Amino acid sequence: MATASVAFKSREDHRKQLELEEARKAGLAPAEVDEDGKEINPHIPQYMSSAPWYLNAERPSLKHQRKWKSDPNYTKSWYDRGAKIFQAEKYRKGACENCGAMTHDAKSCMERPRKKGAKWTNMHIAPDEKIETFELDYDGKRDRWNGYDASTYAHVIERYEARDEARRKYLKEQQLKKLEEKNSKNDGEGEGGGVEDSDEDDDNDELKVDEAKVDESKQMDFAKVEKRVRTTGGGSTGTVRNLRIREDTAKYLLNLDVNSAYYDPKTRSMREDPLPDADPNEKFYEGDNQYRMSGQALEFKQLNIHAWEAFDKGQDIHMQAAPSQAELLFRNYKVIKEKLKSKTKDTIMEKYGNAATEEEIPMELLLGQSERQVEYDRAGRVIKGMETSLPKSKYEEDVFINNHTSVWGSWWKDRQWGYKCCKQTIRNSYCTGAAGIEAAEAATDLMKANIARKATSEDAPAPAEDKKLATWGTEVPEDLVLDEKLLTEALKKEDERRREEKDERKRKYNVRWNDEVTAEEMEAYRMKKVHHDDPMKDFLN
């Protein structure tokens, strides 16, 4: 049996609670009672919704629940919509600056924004709204119909009743009209009258609801299968109708080749033709794509495309929201398109004639004579009289700015666009005419002359100068003569200098520098110098 779990603040509280329960069991402490003064059974947990059968409860009860009585503080009332409590005559401090009500501010005001608010005009002060707060219980907070007035549904019923009444009145008027027309005619007209009577009966039958058709449609479930959808023991059910006749060959059995048309078993669809090489007159199934590209499916596809294109062009049309409107607009579009096509055809035939007709062609058209004078050169090219007119675009053409006589882009030189009239490549430049062209050509010629003169001066060989090589240079002259004693002393000095570099303790305090370098000292430096590219540098010392 489950027991109630109680959270204690400390271990001392837990110990005291255990001692109290032991004392109650031994009869040394009074038993715990509920609100009615009845003793609470300690074996029944306080959170259980029903008492166990072995407790021998006298009658079903929910008193062991913690709050089995409804709290009288909770209310079932609702907000008084649109109620006003006070109408002020002038603006009050802290009220809405727009309407003047004290129950909201200007940011949350629901009135239309005034040109001048009530704070400045002190007129047309809006009344204060009635603000209520309710303390709802658990069910009241979750009641979706809380505050709903059932009397408002009467308007819906009245509207439907008025529609049914108007329909019955219309049907009755039509029947009376048919009867009057029938009685006004002569009864002895023979067979013609019998035919008209049958027509009248057909019209009367059309006004009535065809109950036979309704019954027939209900009986169309010849292969109806009831199955449960996503349920274990209950829940919603669905109806599945299998409209395929069992004697027909299944579409996946028409071609047993593995590489033939794909069959989707989940949707029972095969889009491609399973037998593409068979005789079309002998095939009864050519794939599901056949139904999509023929009949009403193709018309519906064209209707959808027309609705999308019309919506993109600004028409307020939507195929799903208003299908009747979309279909009506599509029909009107087709009628207008046919009229426009026939009008274009008539215009072309009126202008150029129709070769299929038997009318004689005028001599003017046969001989090709006209009053237009055309001049040709010896090669047969047109000189004058048949100038071709250039088509105009939507952009501005032949707009001349800054005194130019040609447009920007009429001149091209050195990968730059410019004006042909002055040969300038600056877009916003002022036209300088022929003088500008001459000045530009002169500047160009001068620049080319300067470049050529510079090139010729660079190509001329410079006079050779006899430079004396320094003693410590990189190149050693061939006629250099070294003294063997001075070279030996220089080698010793170079060794001492290198030892001082390795050990600074051997360096003297007073160092004397000599800037004069002799040829022997430079040769000693070269001989002692470590060449890092030398593969034998590690074996020198």
From TrEMBL:
Residues 136-410 form the Pre-mRNA-splicing factor SLU7 domain. It is found in: Nucleus. Keywords: mRNA processing, mRNA splicing, Nucleus, Spliceosome. Its main location: nucleus. GO terms for molecular function: pre-mRNA 3'-splice site binding. GO terms for biological process: mRNA splicing, via spliceosome; RNA splicing. Residues 22-42, 178-215 are annotated as: Disordered. Residues 178-188, 206-215 have a biased composition (Basic and acidic residues). One of its GO terms (cellular component) is spliceosomal complex. Residues 194-205 have a biased composition (Acidic residues). Belongs to the SLU7 family. PANTHER family: PRE-MRNA-SPLICING FACTOR SLU7, STEP II SPLICING FACTOR SLU7. Involved in pre-mRNA splicing. Associated with the spliceosome. This is Pre-mRNA-splicing factor SLU7. It comes from Gossypium hirsutum.
